Amino acid sequence: MAQYQVVRVDKLDNVLVLSPERYDPRRRSVESGGLRLSEVVEVIKEQVKPNVENGSERYLVLDTNDAWNGFILIDSIQERTKDKLGSTKKIVNSGDVIISRLRPYLRQVAFIDAKVATGLYTVVCSTEFFVLRSKHGKSIAFLVPFLLSDSIQKILSASQEGGHHPRFNQATLDFLVMPESIVSKRDEISEMVIKAVNSFRLGSDMMHCLVENNLGSETDSHK
Q: Does domain 35-221 have CATH number 3.90.220.20?
């Protein structure tokens, strides 16, 4: 069934945005109760720019393809010096959650775990990511399954604007409502997410070792 919404001129978004996608009724959470995302996290916009003068500083750079279904695909992370960043990046810390505003159907959401943010380098990500950080010091790992849930994915999909590079804006995130059933179990869910990420990291490390050992054995056998 087709959906429509009547919007008064004085209710149009900033600078009188006329894009019909901006007023799609499917963009809003329908939960009554719970907490808005903006009550739990702040969106971090701290950035670093390429700088030739301090070019020796080292960074780990997360691109949008490095985040998938809650995990950071660490094997593809690139290490670069500051003069080789290429473009402005956002700084991320251990415990942050990142979500790409570009093409939400790609499910580029991830928890930044200690294996990524080791402290040896400054970790930065593409400006296409929103960087979410806890407002009150409690883990926000529980947001990963929330942001990847079907209901939220539908909202993000309905909220994307633009043809060639569809994106959703920060206001969409701010107005997402987490039901009380999730909020009341946030610590338990966060713990399970962290365990899942650690297991994924362990499995990835083990597979890497297996590949390296097999390649080494094969090479030795041909000497």
A: yes
